[in-house]
Structure formats: C-alpha cells, structure tokens
Amino acid sequence: MEVRVQSLRTRTDAELFMQEIRSCVSRTATRSIICADHRAAPIYPPVVVSQLIALFASINPHVDRAGLLIAPSNATLSMQVERILRETSNPLRRMFFDPDEMAAWLAEIQTETEASRMRAFLGRGRRTGWPAPL
Question: pTM to 2 decimals?
Fold first, then answer.
C-alpha cells in the first residue's frame, strides 16, 4: 500500500484517513506492506496524533511491515511519529529520513514488481520538490 500524506489538520481529516486505510487493509487477501510518505506533511495536531495511534494499533495484526518517510528538516513531526510508533508497539513499523533506506528495508519482503513500484512512488515524491518548506 502506497500512502502519500500531504496534511492531516483536523479530527475529520484523520477520521477520513483512518477509514481509507482500514478499507485498503481489509481488501487485501494477505497482510499489507505500507509505504507511507509523510515528507510533505506539517506537524499534526494532538487530536490527529491520538487518532493515528488508534489507527496503527488497530491495523497491527494486518501489517507485515510499515515504513514512514519523514522529511529530515521536520524535527517536530519526527518526534510525533516516534511517539506514535512507540505507543503502538510494533517493531515492524519504522520511521525513515532516507527514502533509499526505507525502500531497502521494505523490499526485503516484497516481490521485485512491488519493490520497483515502490521505488517509482518514492521517486515521484522526490521530484516534486519535497521536503516542503516548513
């Protein structure tokens, strides 16, 4: 599953995001591999962080691995994501600042077709000028 997060500013944004992720996870016959690009996202309000913790915890049984890519310049978001990961207690979910490192870790359990598609997805984000200025 490829996810590119631009912004989650409100409870409603987070609820819609949660519905979409749960829907995608439930449609897969096997467990999911999530490649989530948060490089363009600003910091998340506390209500959004709380909802992301609930979402991640609820889908833990359905996820083989999840990589979350954060802009190295966004220290506040990286602290928020560290908290989310810590509170959902899943060692198969990791935060990265380097898209190549994340791609290599996720590719360990992907098919070559999946890995190729993921690299293209991450490359498109890089070409659009991310990380976005804070």
Answer: 0.88
